[in-house]
């Protein structure tokens, strides 16, 4: 038995010394010390040893196990030390080399324009309100005085999820939600993404952004509307900017108008940018239709209001003199880093 233990231990030591991988050590450990290992098989055969010799043989087996485990641990530490040194050598930093510049991003033209518009209206006492992009047909159309089968719906043909649920075509639906809360007066703008089934070209996209504004209070007149939007235009495009209102028709406002501003490229003299007219159309606006107020639970005899809506991309295109809306969405860093 003593000779057999010595043979097992010598063989284990030799295999440990010749191993060249950490995984190999695990195989050796299992081979000699595992449940079906060499030493374990000797312990299982102890029943064949004379009773008076069993303590001595057991001690010999335990000594052999301890020596094999010790040698395995020493070899394992040697492997780990070698791996650590190799890793440290590979990760050595040469402090004399120039640093690697990490490219930094910056705000998108849409984001910069939106923040500027929000700051202007917040400075005039307005609140920024957001609403759901997936909206009910009632809030997107009917509550804005556009009943079912009305021709105005064709102009905003959109993406329907069900017959009554759609992707909103305008953020005016947020205004209806606010009016239904009954917390008057209201001074708010509602920026957000909207959806229409438009063909993609230089000035159209099936998804874009709008900023809708709403004021509801006692004794609000068209003069308040004109003064507010004139101040907005001056702060956005410069103090010399002039505005012009042209009669128009919107279902949810009466009277309604479209607002032009003097071309900020030529100052109103006429150029290629404004097609020689000296003016560029910027937004639509009007006094809130009495029926819209009524449907939201507001007495039109006591309260009046005005509303306006402007495309965020439209402002960005004008402000930064971009001639193709698609450039805003192509994520070409050569274009975006100009701003």
UniProtKB/TrEMBL annotation:
Keyword DNA-binding: no
GO molecular function terms noted in the UniProt entry: phenylalanine-tRNA ligase activity
Top-rank taxon, per record: Bacteria
Chain ranges of the Aminoacyl-transfer RNA synthetases class-II family profile domain: 117-317
Cofactor: binding details: Binds 2 magnesium ions per tetramer.
EC number: 6.1.1.20
Location(s), subcellular: Cytoplasm
Name of the featured protein: Phenylalanine--tRNA ligase alpha subunit
UniProt organism field: Jutongia huaianensis
Gene name of the encoded protein: pheS
């Amino acid at each position: 038995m003593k000779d057999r233990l010595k043979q097992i231990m010598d063989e284990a030591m030799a295999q440990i010394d010749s191993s060249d991988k950490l995984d190999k050590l695990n195989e050796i450990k299992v081979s000699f010390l595992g449940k079906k290992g060499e030493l374990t098989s000797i312990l299982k055969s102890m029943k064949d040893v004379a009773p008076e010799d069993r303590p001595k043989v057991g001690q010999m087996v335990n000594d052999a196990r301890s020596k094999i485990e010790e040698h395995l641990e020493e070899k394992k530490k040697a492997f780990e030390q070698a791996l650590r040194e190799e890793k440290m050598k590979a990760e050595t930093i040469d402090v004399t080399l120039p640093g690697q510049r990490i490219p930094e991003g910056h705000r998108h033209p849409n984001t910069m324009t939106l923040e500027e518009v929000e700051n202007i209206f917040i400075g005039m006492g307005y609140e920024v309100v957001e609403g759901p992009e997936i909206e009910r047909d009632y809030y997107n159309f009917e509550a804005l005085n556009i009943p079912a089968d009305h021709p105005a719906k064709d102009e905003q043909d959109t993406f329907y999820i069900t017959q009554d649920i759609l992707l909103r075509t305008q953020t005016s639906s947020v205004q209806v939600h606010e009016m239904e809360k009954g917390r008057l007066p209201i001074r708010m703008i509602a920026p957000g993404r909207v959806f229409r089934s438009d063909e993609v070209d230089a000035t159209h996209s099936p998804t874009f952004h709008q900023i809708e504004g709403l004021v509801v209070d006692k004794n609000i007149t068209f003069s308040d509307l004109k003064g507010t939007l004139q101040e907005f235009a001056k702060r956005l495009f410069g103090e010399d900017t002039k505005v012009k209102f042209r009669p128009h028709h919107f279902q949810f406002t009466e009277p309604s108008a479209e607002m032009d501003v003097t071309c900020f490229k030529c100052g109103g003299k006429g150029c290629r940018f404004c097609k020689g007219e000296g003016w560029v159309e910027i937004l639509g606006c009007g006094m809130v239709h009495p029926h819209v107020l009524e449907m939201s639970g507001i007495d039109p005899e006591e309260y009046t209001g005005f509303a306006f809506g402007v495309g965020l991309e439209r402002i960005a295109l004008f402000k930064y003199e971009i001639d193709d809306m698609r450039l805003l969405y192509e994520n070409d860093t050569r274009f975006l880093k100009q701003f």
